[in-house]
Amino acid sequence: MRLRYPLTLTALALSLAAGLVIGDDDEHERDRQRGHSTMFRQADFSPAQDPTYRSECGGCHFAYPPGLLPARSWEALLDGLGDHFGDNAELSDAVTAQLRGYLTTQAADSAEASGRAPAVAASIPASETPLRFTATRYFQRKHHEIDPRTVHDNPQVGSLSACAACHTQADAGSFDEHQVRIPGMGRWED
Ligand code: HEC
Ligand code: HEC
After folding, report:
1. What's the per-residue H, E or C state across 94-125?
2. Using an 8 Å Cβ cutoff, are 179 and 169 in contact?
């Protein structure tokens, strides 16, 4: 008799937990089916494949896909490599010109833009030239639920600019929230 009350509570907690788990599985199942019906899920952003870009701009940080920013932003970044977020990332004129060609033809507002890139371009007012994707409203809308302490106080992340620290398939251009693993925190569940 003395145990009845706690047992009832335990049963209630268990059934609630089961309900939540089932609900979550349903959602994942729907995502899987959606993925299968299109066979190959289109990348959110075409990954950066140009070898020069990858070696010159992917050494200090993740090689950001060109579709993250409009052409005018890439131009401004290339024009200011001498003081690049406090670092000197200067390159020869020839290499800079080559990167300019690559980045502007693949930019968010270019004819090559695919996946989420056109929506990113459309979300940036023409009067703005952001030097960071992380400074765009598009990015901030997707990341406002993240506790800043799990980023800045986390030596395995350090900054929201470190896309690949959390997005396990970032290098393939996939940023699906179900593939996020924040180091030290595990799977992202919202
Ligand atoms: C010497 C190291 C270094 C090199 C080389 C370098 N970067 Fe960076 N880059 C940085 C640093 C540092 C930041 C700021 C990162 C942070 O805030 O965590 C940054 C940030 C960026 C950002 C903003 C990311 C965001 O959305 O917050 C872009 C875009 C970028 N770099 C593009 C480039 C391009 C293009 C090249 C090649 C021409 C390049 N970087 C080469 C060091 C470098
Ligand atoms: C600290 C970990 C972390 C970092 C660093 C990070 N993200 Fe995310 N990102 C997330 C989480 C968590 C979500 C899902 C948020 C949600 O659903 O509420 C997300 C969502 C997204 C989405 C939307 C995905 C979807 O399914 O709707 C995109 C696109 C994205 N991130 C791109 C980037 C890019 C590009 C960078 C680097 C400039 C970056 N993220 C850096 C954790 C991170």
Report:
1. HHHHHHHHHHHHCCCCCCCCCCCHHHHHHHCC
2. yes
Atom of ligand 2 nearest to the CA of 178: 26
CA 48, CA 70: separation in Å to the nearest integer?
A: 15
- Please tell me if the CB atom of residue 72 comes closer than 6 angstroms to any atom of ligand 1: no
84 CA distance to ligand 1 middle (Å): 7
- The ligand 2 atom nearest the CA atom of 65: 35
Cα–Cα distance, 174 to 185 (Å, whole number): 20
pLDDT digits (tens, 9 = 90+) for 83-119: 999 999 999 999 999 999 999 999 999 999 999 999 9
- The mean per-residue pLDDT over the stretch 168-183 comes to 95
What is the distance between the alpha carbons of residues 186 and 109, in angstroms, rounded to a whole number? 34
Return the closest-CA partner of residue 130 out of 174, 75, 86: 75
CA of 43 to the centre of ligand 1 (A): 22
Q: The whole model's pTM is what?
A: 0.85
